[in-house]
Fold this sequence. Notes:
Number of strands: 0
Shape: elongated
CATH superfamily of the largest domain: Winged helix-like DNA-binding domain superfamily/Winged helix DNA-binding domain
Oligomer: single chain
Number of helices: 10
Amino acid sequence: MIQRTNSEWIDSLKDPIDDEALIDLRATLLRGLRASLSNRINMDLDSLTEDFAQDALLKILKSLDSFRGESKFTTWAQKIAINVAFTELRRRRWKDISLQDIVETPDGDEFTPAILTDPGKTPEMETTQNDILSIVYNLIETELTDRQKTALLAVMQGGMPLEEVARRLDTNRNALYKLIFDARQRLQKKLVEQTGMSTQDVMSVFEKK
């Protein structure tokens, strides 16, 4: 592979693209992807890295103007490729899971937060938490919009990444964050009103000791 300076990489990848430079960059991305992903996935590594490298090449070519020369061009390009790979792997992880699967169990019941399955809880603490949880679930059903409920449970209960929930709800990350923030604020306010506890008291009930 030809050794190139940063400026030579940029010049060779702008229209008209130098085919040899494109081949060299693709080979560089493949090496970096294989090294980064070899211990992280148990699928067909060669096939996956080929796909990721191709997607990364397209993104890199569109982003050449954003390269500021603060690192080697190949280092910058490999970071883009790794980000593309991890984003796609996260998407594939959730591909066959619907938002309804996240919000409800097969029996139609809501998920139970992990904090409520803590084996170290005292009976008194468990009773208090369950009482508050019952109020929370009622508030989720009566005080939140369907969209707020779906977003909140998918992220907070199901653990689905924000980017994936945003894609399913046909919105963007910032709008989804605002949706969840507003939902949590409303729940917190109503919970304090109904229990007579302060916000700090409510949160302390669910703190792990």
